[in-house]
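Human: Note token order:
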Amino acid sequence: MRSRSIGSRVTKISTRVVLGVALLAVPATAVAATAIQGGKTDSAPHSAPHSAHPSRAASGLDDPAKKEIAMKLVSSAENSSLNWKDQYKYIEDIGDGRGYTGGIIGFCSGTHDMLELVELYTKRKPDNILAKYLPALREVDGSDSHDGLGNAYEKDWKKAAQDPDFQKAQNDERDRVYFNPAVKQGKADKIGVLGQFAYYDALVMHGDGDDATSFSGIRKRALKKAKPPSQGGDETKYLNAFLDARVWAMQQEEAHSDTSRVDTAQRVFLKDGNLDLHTPLKWKVYGEDFHIG
């Protein structure tokens, strides 16, 4: 079972209207995680330590190596594991009022994005094992109901997760709805890899929409306190304001009472001046230690 904070995903339905961008799938190389010193570590080859501070302008979160780091950082919070590719098969109702949560980014049957995922999969592969559940998914969309789904759906989801086409559909929907919009807005604000990741993690948890706790609401709250580099502001000051706003948004829902994915992860990188997420990286989420590099 996951140990994680539950995303406030009721705003996801409007995400596609507010931040719709062209689909862009960037392949990422899976690297196995192993235990070290009581925590989690990643033994992949890595770039020079961040103390070297190479040119900031050279990299974005959409660089394949940086994107792989982003996937692992999110998985550490969402799944208590660096092995994000092991989550294609994940599915359960975690009791947050959003129905089933499943897959690499926590697609939810109650917040529209799971429906759109299965629709995409079916468009590409009409005879897939999940296609028969589309009527039920449309009926339960916006609720926590399992009507027409249940144990059979859970088993078939896990079977579908072995299909490379379903894995690709999950990757593509993650990128279209969450990753690409975060990178696009981050680059527009002229913030580096860490800032783009902070945007991505916020979109994953909160979705987007018109309310104060959506990604756009969090960003607006931050803009009242500091300007991004695109407006002549200091990047570190702005990112601190954004993370402050993010923590505030998380605290508006009981399921977000543990804000360690910000406090002992993103905030640690920011205090260290690691604005481009250079490895090695060490952080904690919900008291667990993780390490890349």
Q: What stands out?
A: The chain has ten helices and seven strands.
